[in-house]
Each structure stands twice: as C-alpha cells, then as structure tokens.
Amino acid sequence: MSSIYQNIIASSSRDEKLLAVLIDPDKMKVDQVSNFIVKVNQSIATHIFVGGSEVGEGITEKLVVEIKKYTNLPVVLFPGDVIQITNEADSILFLSLISGRNPDYLIGKHVEAVSILKQTNLEVLPTGYMLFENGKQTSVERVSETKPIRRDAEQTIVDTAKAGEFLGMKLIYLEAGSGATHPIEPKTIQNVKKELNIPLIVGGGIRSKIELESAYKAGADLVVIGTAFEEDEGFFEELRK
Ligand code: 1GP
Hints:
With 241 residues, this protein is an alpha/beta fold. The protein has helices at 4-13, 33-42, 59-70, 103-117, 139-144, 154-166, 186-195, 209-218, 227-231, 234-240; strands spanning 18-23, 47-50, 75-77, 91-97, 123-131, 171-175, 200-203, 222-225. The chain is built from ten helices and eight strands. It has an eight-stranded parallel β-barrel with strand order 1-2-3-4-5-6-7-8, surrounded by six helices. Residues 22, 175, 178-180, 203-206, 224-228 line the site of SN-glycerol-1-phosphate.
C-alpha cells in the first residue's frame, strides 16, 4: 500500500485537489460520528483530520476508533498536544509552528512525542505550520503563546514557508485559524506555492464552494474545512454541485 504522503504527492503532480474534513474531538460526540461520517463518505472529501487545540486525554482515541468503523478514508491526526496521539489513526501531521518563536511548539513538544510515536505505526508527516492573523485571537495563538504572521508581510510569509522546506519539512500548512472570518488570500497562496517544491495545505475560514475553488486555483493541494461542516452538514451537498 502506498503511503499517505506518496498519495498526496501523486495527486499534487496530477493536479488532483484534495479535501480534508476536520473533526474537532471537543465539538463532536462519539454518538454523532456515524451520521456525520456517512455524509463525509458521500462527499468529495479525501481525508479526515482529527484534532483540536485543547482536547483532553483519551478523547481523540475514542473518536478515531468510532470514525474508523464507518470509513476507509485516511484518518490523519492534527494534534494540538502530545496527549492527542493515538495509534488508531493512520498518520500524524508532525507540526512545527514555524510562524511563531515558541521553542515548545518548534521542537519541544516533538521531543516529548517521540517515545509515544515509537510505539505506534503512524505515518509521520513533518509539516511546517504557519498561523496567520485574522482579526481576533485564535485558539492556536492563545495555546501556543505565539504571534501569528501578518497578512501583509508577503516576503516573510514566502520566506518562512521556504525555510520550512529547506529544513526538510514535507508539507507546508497555511492556517487562518478555525472559524476565521477571512480565509488565506488566494494571492498569498499563489506566492507561497510558486516558491515551494512540496505540497501545500490551506485551511481556516473556508465556508463556500467559491472560496474552496479559489484556494485550489491559487495552488492549494489540500484544503482543510471544519467549521463549515460543523455548522451546516448541507455544505457537503453544496460542494458536490
Ligand atoms: C482549522 O484549518 C482548519 O485548523 C479548518 O478551519 O474550522 O475554519 O474550517 P475551519
């Protein structure tokens, strides 16, 4: 079986766009999973991401076990903390918050995670994670105690993403923050994509098919959407039209 990363690379080289549905264990109860996953399976989604900024111990694992009962889509952990790591998933975004300067989120938590990861079969995806300002404080900003990157700092944005690639990261994730009022601007996605030789993930605040398509058109290989599905499951339908 080819790896999740190889599949992302292959899709990116064929210009086939990917969509991850983000499930936040803080917001979804185990008994809501089956109905929700039926909709995910019927949708254009290609991946399920599971994670949140402030999830308690054991909660993610229970949720992933339940999700796996109903889908064959790859389940990728998108953890806010080491306690969210579970071998029940297929893969993990090993996120380094390269927009910030907090050593805990650049390398500290990663060192803590190693002894746990060594006991799993998770495919580890080294990911440069860049948080953008969005007019209000996001939970990533609060929990990580880092400043997001300014949206007008074009050169810094592009150079940060490229520095991530030079450091050997395999993915770059441009994050506007869950529930952001504005998604990352297409121009920014385009500028970053032009510089990168690795796949680009974009997420935060995408609530319409038009916004999804403009992120793809600008160069996002994989888009992550959580809030729009949480608030209205009819959004799955809208994306199919
Ligand atoms: C958040 O990028 C993801 O980490 C998705 O954001 O919930 O706004 O879709 P939304």
